[in-house]
Amino acid sequence: MQVLVTGATGGIGFAIASHFAALGHNVVLADLQQDAINSKVALLIAQGFSASGLVLDVTNAESIASAAEQYQIDVLVNNAGIQHVARLEDFPPEKWQQLINVMLTGPAMLSRAFIPGMRQRDFGRIINIGSIHALIASPFKSAYVAAKHGLLGFSKVVALENGDKNITINTICPAYVKTPLVEQQIAAQAKENNLTEQQVIEQIMLAPMPQKAFIDVTEIAETAAFLCSAGAKHMTAQTLVLDGGWTAR
After folding, report:
1. Which residue, 121, 157, 169, 174, could crosslink 126 as a Cys pair with Cβ 3.0–4.6 Å?
2. Catalytic residues
């Protein structure tokens, strides 16, 4: 299979790309920075895996159209994400829109670009990387929470629209994953809440989670691979929650 992963040079994205490559699939690492892409692709090729890179702006229609022209994709992993933490009244409007564009409109337009080919071949797997914040809310994250909540609804609609073909659309929703993006959130939350970074981890991030642990990127990668397996053929429009029991409360 040919697998395209957006945000592929980051912690979660590269873990997913690496796992699919190790399983013998051809992976396309899509991201914004050519140097970072080249570095990650070289790491995979050095291990004997099949990998290529693609400079892709998920908020740009021309960039998306170009990607669809270049590649016949069997598995699309919508992983690209950004974060900004602020009270709504302090939230720059352009930053609010950017988060929606990257994490909701981007996955929608990429799916729109690749679904026709998937339908023609009668096979496709679209995996959206959501978040615990697709299910619950936290203060100071209005744009992120709005985008991730919207992603669930979008996934269900597109799954229904393509139920007549061997195409599935599902969303993986992990609790906090220790990535550079989360590291930045810890510092921002510490500032907003007047806490130390360790207090943010203990009192905000892991407090609602019975298992009291960050989710590992390999858990997300293996869940994504499962969604492409024969055992998940009829699993579509679903939300797979990796939250250590958080939402059971």
Report:
1. 169
2. 144
